[in-house]
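In the design runs reported in the main text, the only information available to the sequence generator was the tokenized backbone. The following block is the verbatim input for one such run; it is reproduced so that readers can re-run the procedure and compare outputs position by position.
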């Protein structure tokens, strides 16, 4: 399960596609036997206190690089 502070959003296919494009993300529905899975961007979008996008932390980024990005936003 996810931490309760994480907010999951949904909408129509068109609404989701619009958000994916706005964030320059990637998402693709992959059919599987008996259902589907999603291939998608696995990065953290870091926003400032005003809700503006500031930077991206890649899934493979090392901890020190990620912390440096977060610290810059918190200044």
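Verbatim output:
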């Amino acid at each position: 399960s996810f931490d309760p502070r994480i907010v999951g959003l949904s909408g129509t296919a068109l609404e989701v596609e619009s958000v994916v494009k706005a964030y320059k993300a990637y998402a693709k529905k992959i059919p599987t036997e008996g259902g589907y899975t999603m291939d998608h961007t696995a990065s953290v979008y870091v926003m400032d206190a005003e809700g503006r996008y500031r930077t991206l932390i890649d899934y493979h980024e090392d901890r020190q690089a990620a912390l440096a990005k977060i610290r810059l936003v918190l200044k």
